[in-house]
Amino acid sequence: MTFRTRYTGLIDRYRDRLPVHDDTRIIGLGEGNTPLIRLNNIPGALGKDVDIYVKYEGLNPTGSFKDRGMTMAVTKAVEEGAKAIICASTGNTSAAAAAYAARAGIQAFVLIPDGKIAMGKLAQAMMHGAIVIQIKGNFDEGMRLVKEVAEEAPVTIVNSINPYRLQGQKTAAFEIVEELGRAPDYHCIPVGNAGNITAHWMGYSEYFEQGIVNNRPVMLGYQAEGASPFIKGEMEDNPETVATAIRIGHPQSWDKAWKVREESKGWFDSRSDEQILRAQKMLAEKEGVFCEPASATSLAGAIQDLEEGKIPEGSTIVCTLTGHGLKDPDIAIQQSGSDMVTVDADLGSVKEAILKNL
Ligand code: AN7
């Protein structure tokens, strides 16, 4: 019997490709190494002959892809002597910042939009001991305030404008390539601040430029219709969407993401809240994969582009599912609540409920 080496997280695994030293104290929680799940039922339901894989980033320690960047950002902040970190967040960044700060023994401050953050994410930030500052404004206003306050107080910003975040997040592309033996033809990804699409392209390009693979994917970035500055071609001030994670009108990695689109010959497009929720439900019902609404934007994107022939049959597609479905139980229950039946607590009623649904 041989035992597998214990997986200790992405910094250990990709140490040579990340800006760490031999004696760097790693602040990690075993992040990365998430499953790449081939969809068995959805392509058939769409009547399309394609291989669609979902990279289930919801299985990271705090339930989103943010852990990849946060392990790097907090490791470096601690190495540089920081006693506190700060971020603005639509929820997942604050959950990750709170957890990694707790792990490091430093203080996290998180600015969140008042009332527009999914319940699971708020619970995480509070449980991990972050100081949660709700602002009467949206993410973009919070981001502006974080940049201003970091000039006046000893706090390290861990939003994706911190370059270590993208370094950590690029490892998702490494994992995909290693598993497929090549890069996919198309990579579909939800876009908010556009840090993740930028980081993926960095990862794919690193392997490509070093001759580890000889292809790179076409990068497809999808936004929610009500929060779609990349589709409108300009920043917007009042973003609105059910997918609160990507309720962002002033993306921080604006120029970088346009460059990704150009270099990968990709495109940006938007999907309605209805399409996003339909894709989320479809993944849960047909594949057993539960992601949060923002994450399903990638699949909603791929579905319409397949239907319209923009993505040809025969393609290998990877859709990033950025966050776990349990992050936002309210939306999930609202979507599915009508599926529940309430019956009397007797055998006849329970039996009837089963037989009429078989
Ligand atoms: C589930 O947590 O910006 O395009 O403050 O939580 O890299 O911003 C979250 C972003 C997609 C968009 N899916 O990624 C935050 C935050 C989920 C997310 C995105 C986010 P970027």
Short description:
With 358 residues, the chain is an alpha/beta fold.
What does this molecule look like?
- The protein has 358 residues and is of the alpha/beta class.
- The protein folds into 2 domains: 10-63 and 165-328, 3-Layer(aba) Sandwich (Rossmann fold), CATH 3.40.50; 66-162, Rossmann fold.
- Helices cover 42% and strands 14% of the residues.
- It contains 15 helices and 10 strands.
- Strands 1-2-10-7-8-9 form a 6-stranded mixed beta sheet, sandwiched between helices.
- Helix 8 crosses helix 9 (195-209).
- The protein is globular.
- It starts with 9 loop residues before the first helix and ends with a helix.
- Ligand AN7 binds at residues 64, 89-93, 160, 190-196, 245-246, 292, 294-295, 322-323.
